[in-house]
C-alpha cells in the first residue's frame, strides 16, 4: 500500500514540475500582458497543487499540512491574478494585435447608448 | 528522481527572472513575481521531502502567505498610481 502511494506521489510530482516549467515558459513566449497572466497563474496553480499533494502522498504523516498549503495556494492565486488584470485594465494597457474578441470594451465599458460606463470601473 | 525535478524548477525560475528583469511595464514584473513565488513555494515543499525535515512545510506556508500579500499590495499600488 505504501509503495503504491509512493509511485502515485512521484508521478504527481513529475506532472507538477512539467506544469510549473510550462507556466514559466509561457511568461517568455506570450505576446501580451493578459496572456502572460493566464500562463503565469493558471498553469502554476495546477503545478503547485499537484507537486504539494504528491509530497503529501509520499510521506503520509505530512498529508494534513500539505493539504493546508495546497488549499491556501488554490484560494489565493486567482485573487492575485484578478487584481493584477483589473489594475492593468484600469491603467489602459493595450491588448495585443492578435486579439480578436474583447468583450470588456463592448459589454462593460460602454452602456447601451454608447457612453462610457463609470460604475463598471 | 528528485534531482531532475530540481533542475526543471531551476530552469523555470531562470525563465521567470528573465521576464522580471526585461518586462516592459510594471504589471509584467508583478506577474513574473507571482509566478516565481509560486514556484519557490512548491520548491520548499520538495526541499522538505529531500532533507526529510518537517520545518520546511511551515516555511512554505508562511512564504506563500507573505508573497500573496506582497502581490496584492503591489497590484493595488499600480492601480492607484497609474
Question: Would you write up a description of this structure?
Answer:
The complex is a heterodimer of chains A (121) and B (82). Chain A has 121 residues and is mostly helical. Chain A has 4 helices and no strands. Chain B has one domain. Chain B has helices at 2-22, 26-51, 55-81. Helix content of chain B is 90%, strand content 0%. Chain B has 3 helices and no strands. The mean pLDDT of chain B is 91.
Low-confidence stretches of chain B: none
Oligomeric state of the chains? heterodimer
Number of strands of chain B: 0
> pLDDT average of chain B, as an integer?
91
How many H/I helices of chain B? 3
Distance, first to last CA of chain A: 54 Å
Instruction: List the domain count of chain A as a whole number.
Output: 1
Helix and strand pattern of chain B: HHH
Helix vs. strand class of chain B:
mainly alpha
Q: What is the radius of gyration of chain A computed over CA atoms, rounded to a whole number of angstroms?
A: 19 Å
- Low-confidence region ranges of chain A: none
Question: What portion of residues of chain B belong to β-strands?
Answer: under 5%
In short:
The complex is a heterodimer of chains A (121) and B (82). Chain A is an all-alpha fold. Chain A is 74% helix and 0% strand.
List keywords for this structure.
heterodimer; A: 121 residues; mainly alpha; 0% strand; elongated; B: 82 residues; 90% helix
Topology:
The complex is a heterodimer of chains A (121) and B (82).
Chain A: H1 2-29, H2 33-58, H3 63-90, H4 103-109
Helix pairs in contact in A: 1-2, 2-3
Chain B: H1 2-22, H2 26-51, H3 55-81
Helix pairs in contact in B: 1-2, 2-3
Amino acid at each position: 500500500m505504501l509503495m503504491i502511494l509512493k509511485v502515485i506521489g512521484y508521478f504527481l510530482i513529475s506532472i507538477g514540475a512539467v506544469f510549473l516549467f510550462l507556466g514559466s515558459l509561457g511568461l517568455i513566449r506570450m505576446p501580451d500582458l493578459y496572456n502572460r497572466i493566464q500562463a503565469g497563474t493558471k498553469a502554476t496553480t495546477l503545478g503547485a497543487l499537484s507537486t504539494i499533494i504528491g509530497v503529501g502522498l509520499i510521506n503520509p504523516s505530512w498529508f494534513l499540512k500539505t493539504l493546508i498549503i495546497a488549499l491556501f495556494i488554490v484560494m489565493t492565486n486567482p485573487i492575485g491574478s484578478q487584481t493584477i488584470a483589473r489594475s492593468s485594465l484600469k491603467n489602459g494597457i493595450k491588448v495585443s494585435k492578435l486579439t480578436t474578441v474583447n468583450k470588456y470594451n463592448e459589454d462593460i465599458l460602454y452602456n447601451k447608448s454608447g457612453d462610457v460606463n463609470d460604475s463598471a470601473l | 528522481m528528485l534531482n531532475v525535478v530540481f533542475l526543471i524548477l531551476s530552469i523555470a525560475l531562470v525563465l521567470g527572472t528573465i521576464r522580471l528583469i526585461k518586462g516592459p511595464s510594471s504589471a509584467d514584473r508583478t506577474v513574473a513575481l507571482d509566478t516565481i513565488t509560486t514556484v519557490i513555494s512548491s520548491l520548499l515543499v520538495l526541499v522538505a521531502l529531500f532533507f526529510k525535515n518537517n520545518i520546511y512545510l511551515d516555511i512554505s506556508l508562511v512564504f506563500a502567505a507573505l508573497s500573496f500579500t506582497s502581490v496584492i499590495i503591489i497590484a493595488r499600488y499600480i492601480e492607484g498610481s497609474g
